[in-house]
Amino acid sequence: MSVQNKTISLVLPCYNEAEGIRVLLESLPGYIDEVVVADNRSTDGTGDVARSLGAKVVYESTRGYGAAYKTGLAAATGEIITTADGDGTYPLDEIEGLVRLLDDGGYDFISASRFPLRNPAAMELTNKIGNRALTVAVRALFGHHLADSQSGMWVFRSAVLEKLTLTSNGMPFSEEIKLEALDHPDVRFHEGHISYDLRIGEVKLRRWREGLENLLFLVRRRLGRGRP
User: Fold this and answer.
1) Cα–Cα distances in angstroms (integers) from residue 5 to residues 79, 81, 95, 101, 103, in the given order
2) How far is CA 13 from CA 103, 147, 164, 170, in A?
3) What's this model's pTM, rounded to 2 decimal places?
4) Cα(81)–Cα(111) distance, rounded to whole angstroms?
5) What does the DSSP 8-state code read for residue 220?
6) Is the dihedral of CA 64, 66, 69, 73 positive or negative?
7) In angstroms, rounded to a whole number, what is the distance separating the alpha carbons of residues 146 and 139?
8) What pLDDT, on the 0 to 100 scale, is given for residue 206?
9) Which residues of the chain have a pLDDT value below 50?
10) How far apart are CA 213 and CA 94, in angstroms?
11) Is domain 8-225 classified as CATH 3.90.550.10?
12) DSSP letter at 199?
């Protein structure tokens, strides 16, 4: 079953998410036509679990969120591409509404904002502070009034990818893909609100290190592009 007569690919970057990926794929909405799991050197059998449940598994040996995404997005074949994390935090059952919003609103790229959180307990205080600080930095440096610059859930037309220059192999990839879409004159960007849930499995985010990496990426991008 498709949505708006479009084929939909779901891309999931994963590093040691065997527990979460099983839960996700066992509850996959029927309108998802293809699941691409980008296995980023997992050691817990994530790829095997995903493949056993019908996902297309691609492997990326370069460690990093962005590196996994580049490989996963390149393997996706749907007309619409949507993304999420392999830990169950992003709501797959809300993808249908985002796809309809994409088409009905005439958009090309929708970033799914988690804020304001419907379930405040789903995110630790340090994460809330870090997300807020980085979103304020995006506003200050680039003038884009996003509600959630760090969201890892996006819905976009696959044709958009060829218009974006994506370089980051790390966590800044999430910022980069939004900024590329926002800054491109031919890409119609929008934010839509979603829920956000408690993660399944072990937390792997290195908060302070990756928060600093994200901030430095924003500063370097601002200086390099010299936007007014």
Assistant:
1) 10, 14, 14, 14, 10
2) 25, 23, 19, 12
3) 0.95
4) 12
5) H
6) negative
7) 7
8) 72
9) 226-228
10) 30
11) yes
12) P
- For 65, the enclosing helix (H) or strand (E) is helix 65-75
- Dist CA 9 CA 7 (whole Å): 7
Residue 95 sits at the vertex; the CA angle it makes with 171 and 104, to the nearest 5 degrees, is: 115
The distance from CA 54 to its chain's CA centroid, rounded to whole angstroms, is 21
The two tokens of residue 220 are 């370097």
Task: For residue 176, report the phi and psi dihedrals to the nearest 5 degrees.
Answer: -60, -45
What's the confidence (pLDDT) of residue 2? 66
Contact yes or no for 47/20 (Cβ under 8 A): no
- pLDDT for the residue 228: 35
SS (H, E, C) 69-83: HHHHHHHCCCCEEEE
- Nearest-angstrom CA–CA distance, 44 and 200: 14
Structure tokens at 58: 């691609």
From CA 165, how far away is CA 177, in angstroms rounded? 8
Name the residue with tokens 């999420």: 84
Within 10 A of 34 (CB to CB), how many other CB atoms are there? Answer: 17
| Tokens describing residue 158 | 């696959």
- H helix and E strand count, the chain: 7, 7
